[in-house]
Amino acid sequence: MNQRLPFISLILNGVLAIAVIVLYFLHFNGQRSSNVELSDSVTTEQEAPIKFDNLPDLGSSSGAIAFIDNDKFEEKYQYFVDLKSSLTKENNKNNDLLMKREKVLQDNIMTYQQIAPSLSPEVREKRETDLMKEKEDYLAYRESLENEFLNKQQNLQKDFLKKLDTYLKSLSKEKNYSYIFTYSKGLPATIVYAKDSLEITDQVVRSLNEQYKKKK
What we know:
Helix content: over 70%
Number of helices: 8
Largest sheet: 3 strands, mixed
Oligomer: single chain
């Protein structure tokens, strides 16, 4: 159960902040050279250039890029603080319940080991069967608590992401942000918002499929 608690940060940390100068240079400073290199490589290796049709013009359509400091966000966003506190309390409560039940099981096993030599084979077999059943019940109870806790985490995660996504979409529309990143010092940044108009998945897939068909 102690391994579950770090998962709270894993679920929630990546959702919270925004860092970006690298992507800015990728889009603006590296745009021309990257397009030339990609076009040249396709021409030599695949015998025909990929058509870059209907791709967004980053020079005119992309907006500002911003970031949120993850550490500050976690410290000051009250909803997140309350959520983390609630999950921590429930995790500690579950740990206490498991420790008490595990102690009862261990005490019963130790008691049996002490008196086992004086018991008849039939009684020993019966006690061992009972202890085995008690252990199986304990493991099933532990798994039930873990699954219940994980489900609650996932539901809270969805609610948290929904709140954040709704706000970021509204903010990006008002401020014309193209990308929003998570940022925590010393850790990789993660995109948590990208303007829909900058998605090029369909165009890339269509062009690559055309190239693939020509080579078959």
